[in-house]
């Protein structure tokens, strides 16, 4: 089913099958899952799903509707051929979602920021500051003015080499110390039905 797919798509997804890729991918997913606290029947959209690695992992966590969107048709062809439980993959951009507001219980976007070209991501480089306090301030500034509450930041992959020392350090390193290569931000949309009941 993957015959004819661009080499870059196959290589990108194959990286997650290498020992280092498996460790990094699973470490990132473990943090993402812990921060999401995904309910079993919840619906979820993965914005900028790429080859669907995290979308497929999420498919094993929820029985609700699951949609991955990406503007790259080659990646979407791969996604559709490797769906694990009937999740949908649609061609769309994060800046113009083809769904009404609040169509999903949860939304994720993993590493999509890295693939937005040019000046659209002026904040990408400052976030990479190596001090945890500075990283926290710069990252939170990206969310200024958005209707969000309870923002939390965590990180993993402190030593990205993936060897035994890196894995040992990762087990002991507190995720709230924002020195890891993978930064994860979670928050709740203000004005949800739960807010209105409170």
Task: Please specify the SSE layout and strand pairing.
Layout: H1 7-15, H2 19-36, E1 44-47, H3 53-59, E2 66-70, H4 73-81, E3 88-91, E4 106-108, H5 124-127, H6 132-141, E5 148-156, H7 164-172, E6 182-189, H8 193-197
Parallel strand pairs: 1-2, 1-4, 2-3
Antiparallel strand pairs: 5-6
Largest sheet: 4 strands, parallel
Sum up the overall morphology in one term: globular
**Proportion of residues in helical segments:** 25-40%
Alpha-beta classification: alpha/beta
Describe the 3D structure.
The protein has eight helices and six strands; from the N terminus they run ααβαβαββααβαβα. By secondary structure, it is α/β, with parallel strands linked by helices. The strands form two sheets. It has a four-stranded parallel sheet, covered by helices on one side. The chain is globular, with a radius of gyration of 17 Å. The N and C termini lie far apart (50 Å).
């Amino acid at each position: 089913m993957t015959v004819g797919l661009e080499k870059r798509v196959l290589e990108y997804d194959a990286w997650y099958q290498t020992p280092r890729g498996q460790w990094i991918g699973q470490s990132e997913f473990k943090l993402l899952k812990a921060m999401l606290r995904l309910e079993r029947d919840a619906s979820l959209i993965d914005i900028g799903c790429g080859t669907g690695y995290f979308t497929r992992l999420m498919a094993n966590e929820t029985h609700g509707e699951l949609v991955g969107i990406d503007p790259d048709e080659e990646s979407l062809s791969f996604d559709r051929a490797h769906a694990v439980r009937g999740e949908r993959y649609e061609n769309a951009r994060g800046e113009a979602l083809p769904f009404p507001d609040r169509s999903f219980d949860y939304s994720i976007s993993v590493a999509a920021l890295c693939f937005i070209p040019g000046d659209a991501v002026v904040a990408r480089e400052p976030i990479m500051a190596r001090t945890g306090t500075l990283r926290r301030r710069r990252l939170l500034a990206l969310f200024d003015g958005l209707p969000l509450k309870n923002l939390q930041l965590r990180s993993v992959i402190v030593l990205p080499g993936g060897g035994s020392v890196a894995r040992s350090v990762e087990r002991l390193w507190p995720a709230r110390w924002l020195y890891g290569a993978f930064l994860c931000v979670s928050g709740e949309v203000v004005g949800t039905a739960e807010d209105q009941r409170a």
